[in-house]
Amino acid sequence: MFRFAHIEYFYLLALIPVFTALVIWLFVWRKKALQRYGQLSVINRLLPDKSNSKLILKFVLMMVTWGLLVFVVAGPQTGSKLEKIQRKGIDLIIALDVSNSMLSQDIKPNRLARAKQSISRLIDKLEGDRIGIIVFAGKAYTQLPITTDYAAAKMFVATINPGMIPTQGTAIGDAVDLAINTFGESKKNKALIIISDGEDHEGNVLEQAELAATKGITIYTIGMGLPEGGPIPVYNGDVLVGFKKDKEGNAIVSKLDETLLQRIATIGKGMYIRATNSETGLNRIFDDINEIQKSEIESKQFADYENQFQYFLAIALILMILDLFIFEKKTFWMKQIKPFN
After folding, report:
1. Parts of the chain belonging to CATH 3.40.50.410
2. What pTM does this model have?
3. Would you place residue 185 in the very low, low, confident or very high pLDDT band (cuts 50, 70, 90)?
4. If you compute the radius of gyration of the chain from its CA atoms, what whole number of angstroms results?
5. Structurally, what CATH architecture does the domain formed by 85-300 represent?
6. Beta partners for 222?
């Protein structure tokens, strides 16, 4: 496979016809200027060493050299052909709750930060599986479409924060519905991991879980939080300024709703795990996911390209050196050539 790394430099080739037109104009202007002094046949006899053919040859060499230098800066590269690789894996979507209640610090350093750390470690263990990320609060959004680009997945996980969704709440049902649409009609085995404190404010999540189950999606749930719960911190930038309070001025305590998350996992034929300060449970879920029969996923990749500009540069240098040894005057051997005598 051959390519150019910077094809935009090929616009410089458009200067060749410009240079050509300029040289033609100079030849015409020179001819007209000489005609003012007399007949050209007489003038040519007075300038026996003048060689138009050498001027033309030098110009052609200059233009070829210019073209080769354009090829050099365009970055010619060669690489292996496009290959199709069969890899086995499943389609996995992680739906992460990013509501303000996930900032509660009953799970250290807080629920959301601990979940992000665990997701990042899970991505390091993936081999052949495709992963997608959904974030939800009052609404659900696709943070990362399903992909095998694990580096990109970790980068997107690192950027997740509660401020990315202005609508507060915990719409788990919307997250499940979005996951169903993201999976689409894929025939591969599918798994959805919901990480939340379980405080759903919409109420349609069980119906959506049943619909997902009919489409072959296995649902796992992880409860982020402790039964006793914790207050919801309020930040001004990165500075903690207090805790969220109700109308009476009492601190609002966010508690884990295990019952809902357990029912979702049961309907989805998966499992529920409660996170603790020692583990989130993602490793146990990953072990269970590995037991799922994995489908073949076709992917495409290129080997690294290698630069090949040196060949064009070498030819350009040779032509430049050759141009130095071509003089505008006729040489002794050229003077001996008299085809009309």
Report:
1. 85-300
2. 0.60
3. confident
4. 36
5. 3-Layer(aba) Sandwich (3.40)
6. 195, 273
